[in-house]
Each structure stands twice: as C-alpha cells, then as structure tokens.
Amino acid sequence: MWAEAVEMLGRAERLQRQFFHPVRGAAQSAWEPPVDVFETHEAFWVIVALPDVAPADVELIVDGHELVVAGLRATPRELRGAVIHRMELPYGRFERRIALQGRFELVERRLENGCLTLGLRKL
C-alpha cells in the first residue's frame, strides 16, 4: 500500500511538472518535455520526447552551459473544440533547459519517431 502511494505521488509530481510548472525565464508558461542525457568521452547526446512536433517548430539555443529546447506542440486542427476524455500529452508552448558541463557545439540534430536526438560535441 505504501509503495502504491509513493508511486501515485511520483506520477502526480511528474504531471504537475509537465503541465503546470512555469519555466524560468519564459515569456509565458510552458510545459517541459522529458529528456534523456548521455555522455561519452567526445560528446553529450540529448533525447527529447516531442510527439507530433514538426522540426520547424523546434528552436535550439545555447545559453552559456545550458542547452534550451523550445517550441510549440499545436493541437491538430481536427481536434480543436473536441471533448477531451483524457489528455496525458500536453499541447502548447514547451521549453526545457538542460545544464551541461563545459563547452559544446551542436553537430547532429534529428527528429524522428517523436524524439529529437541532439549530438553535442565537447570543445
């Protein structure tokens, strides 16, 4: 029973963070997509979950030692005005700031199968 309660609190916290957490420095509130960050000797690899987001709707900014991934996940036109029975994938403006050690440059950018994969070579 205790494990179920802890799991439920964890899920609630993740949902709150994704949907309701105002992003620091954003002009308007934004949701934060989940990310995975890996490091090799030569590079960082960042994978950002962005289902149904077009490459043209993603902006990448290097801000000091932070990589900023921002953009918009638009509601499909045919679903605007529809009754929502369940919504677990957020829509609207998103922004995710990812702190990385040292300096880096973007050498690979690939958006496929709902995931943005970024290769950042260490300098």
Automatic annotation (TrEMBL):
Keywords: Stress response. Pfam families: HSP20. The keyword tRNA processing does not apply. Residues 26-123 form the SHSP domain. Transmembrane segments: none annotated. InterPro entries: A-crystallin/Hsp20_dom, HSP20-like_chaperone. Belongs to the small heat shock protein (HSP20) family. This is Heat shock protein Hsp20.
